[in-house]
């Protein structure tokens, strides 16, 4: 395994980069890889955070921290497929935890049908309730409790709706309460896209922190803005120094920075957590960033001006949990939800569960005919360059293999069945003859992604490797090309009518 890989980051399991540098400082991202739309909750000395999981199920992984830098996954709160999950809100109210979950139906984009759901739990680790449909089609809910004691959801587009006292239904009509902040017309942005309202009460004011400028598009588009009011009912006054955060130039290390939430750190210092794209690595998705703020004498807040791409002081030392998890998997125990998730899955095949574990193997029942319609199994990785290997055995009628998967429209990889190889490139399939060293039932497969170039090797015994003749360039496998707000992820797939058996999945970060 490679040792030190990219200079300037700490190293977690298998060489994965982590924020904690081990010397009293950290370096962004605090959550490498695809962790968009962070929703963070301070609960005593503990912090919990979750992110948009979009089409991945189980979804809404909840992460736990004691220092805002080191995070461990503790559960996947959403077990039932209710649609593509966008920008959830994790809160605690009167001793109970709630997740407000906006959804969109697959392949219908920004204007697609959807609704906001809520799930709840008395213990953050679960069990979580079944989803309850609030029958509201908006996105980006931000929960608030007003000075009147009532509960509200603030929504995209400057609207707001009141919740019932138990938070499990909507009462009253939608109200428009805020028009947003107008940025200069000459700025390069994707769209106005007023979204992601998060409410923090501090001192005498309610602060509404929002995103504008569009999630992707130009690197300079997405931004953080703020407005405040002495009442939850307004009027809302825009910050005189908006935007609070914005990428000024494509030369910066982090692009499209926005969708922020304020949080008080362990020692009383305040921070913003938000997401951004890494310059040159759109394929990793939107990664979670942490930046210190300071409150000003006039009751506003501003960033401290520190370089978020440089090492920064840890919020606190000595409070860390074990960060992340090893992505290598011997399949001795289930990591479903915590690491693995199916893309847009159907829950059953002929009334039975699609996957099971058998003698240190993950067995997945085939579905569909290709990665486009078989719901591949994927995991998030946050390294600029990496390699993974897995042992694959297909039963009669099945096709299985390895992928780098973005969406059903865009993926690369290699699969095989009893008769032939299948090359997957650009989201299409090409049949190829079976090499002489393979028997069509069982083989070892290796995928390397370095400099956005994907190289695949196969082996009959896991020792002698043969390079597949086609290498694939994947720098364009991201949202600005193919929509869907996703990331390029290591994946396994099983198509057809039989089963595919996976063993000894090994992942490692490598030098970029």
Helix content: under 10%
SS summary, helix count: 1
In the CATH hierarchy, what is the class of the largest domain? Mainly Beta
Give unreliable regions as ranges: none
Major sheet summary line: 8 strands, antiparallel
- Average pLDDT: 94
Total beta strands: 44
> What is the name of the CATH topology of the largest domain?
Tachylectin-2, Chain A
End-to-end CA span:
14 Å
Q: Classify the secondary structure makeup into a structural class.
A: mainly beta
Alpha-carbon Rg, integer: 23 Å
Major sheet strand order: 6-28-33-43-35-36-37-38
CATH architecture designation of the largest domain: 5 Propeller
Beta-strand residue fraction: over 45%
Global geometry: globular
The tally of structural domains comes to 2
- CATH-defined superfamily of the largest domain: Glycosyl hydrolase domain, family 43
Explain the overall architecture.
With 512 residues, the protein is mainly beta. It has two domains: 17-313, Tachylectin-2, Chain A; 341-509, Sandwich (Jelly Rolls), CATH 2.60.120. It has one helix and 44 strands. The strands form ten sheets. The protein has an eight-stranded antiparallel beta sheet, with no helix packed on it. A hairpin with a 3-residue loop joins strand 36 (410-416) and strand 37. The longest helix has 4 residues, at 479-482. The protein is globular, with a radius of gyration of 23 Å. The mean pLDDT is 94.
